[in-house]
Specification:
about 325 residues, alpha/beta, two-stranded antiparallel sheet
């Protein structure tokens, strides 16, 4: 790709505070830092800032030396706030610390803003979550509702996307949210390549339950893995619940219960997401017609695919292809 048409580098600024959870800080740098164009040039610039430059404590026995202060936020395209130990407790950020309030106030009005885990309390205290559907760690949901009853909290999902403002439920869901933002910016193929090189799942639906009450079984003991693999190979045949249950020699009722225990969502919701992912991949990587893409992904007709993409992504297949066609070559 020549420089004249090279996508602009998107600046991601991570605002860290004392009591930082290092894993959440590392997720952002690792995933956004892996996105490259065809010339192996980064498509994101990831910077770290603190309320004051200097040593930042973490919830481990290591510290972080941060060279930049909050002024780094001024030119940000995306600001991500990981959690801190200060976000826990009965009434965190009540009121918001003046230095933290001043830092959040520097976020440009056009910048995307995201919180990970209980950092949602920071955005809520700053008024950035008013009118939004949000999430936070399920263990903090009761405190959040008590402090912000006017905010639409959904503690049962991995992340939420309100356009400009996004929230992730906790720790590992920061991976899902970061990949979702990369997918939004550069398409599914680029996000999948980042996930592949980082050895993480390429996609977990934002609506998937964040808290599965039953222990996740070991792969060799999975009761539904064979059915899932079979379904992915036969998406174009529109596999149904009964057919999937038959792959595991189970009743539909038993299969549905075990599937939800292992995957965290219903078989129907999972199948719908796999079909959509397959359609997006084909729109990005092939020249197949919309009707053919719909058939290959198991939607049956182009009209059905258009309806699902408009409902889930807010765009038509044609608009999606025009936006992301060729994005795979940049991965």
């Amino acid at each position: 790709m020549c420089d004249s048409v090279r996508p602009a580098v998107h600046r991601v600024v991570v605002l860290v505070r004392h009591g930082l959870l290092p894993i959440e800080f590392g997720i952002v740098h690792r995933l956004f830092g892996r996105v490259r164009d065809a010339g192996d040039r980064p498509l994101y610039e990831v910077l770290t800032c603190a309320l004051e430059p200097g040593e930042i404590t973490t919830d481990t026995d290591v510290t972080l030396n941060v060279a930049r202060g909050p002024e780094a936020i001024d030119e940000a395209d995306t600001v991500i706030v990981p959690a801190s130990e200060a976000d826990y407790g009965e009434r965190p950020h009540d009121p918001l610390d003046p230095a933290l309030a001043a830092a959040v106030a520097r976020i440009p009005p056009t910048a995307r803003v995201a919180s990970i885990c209980s950092a949602a309390f920071v955005l809520a205290a700053a008024g950035l979550l008013d009118g939004c559907r949000v999430t936070t760690h399920w263990m903090s949901a009761g405190y959040f509702r008590a402090m912000y009853p006017h905010i639409d909290l959904d503690p049962d999902v991995l992340y939420t996307d309100n356009g400009r403002v996004l929230t992730a439920a906790g720790v590992a869901s920061g991976i899902d949210l970061s990949l979702h933002m990369i997918r939004t910016d550069h398409g599914a193929a680029v996000a999948n390549e980042v996930a592949r090189t980082t050895v993480v799942p390429p996609h977990r639906d934002g609506g998937q339950a964040q808290f599965i009450r039953h222990p996740v079984p070991r792969p060799e003991r999975s009761a539904t893995a064979r059915a899932r693999a079979w379904a992915l190979e036969h998406l174009r045949l529109q596999p149904g619940l009964r057919e999937m249950a038959e792959q595991e020699s189970m009743s539909v009722r038993t299969f549905t219960r075990r599937f939800r225990d292992e995957v965290g969502q219903s078989p129907g919701r999972w199948i719908a997401q796999q079909r959509l992912d397959r359609a997006r991949q084909l729109l990005e990587e092939s020249d197949l017609s919309v009707d053919r893409v719909a058939a290959e992904a198991g939607f049956g007709t182009g009209a059905s695919l258009r309806q699902h993409m408009q409902s889930e992504l807010g765009v038509s297949p044609g608009a999606y292809r025009r936006t992301f066609r060729g994005a795979f070559s940049r991965a």
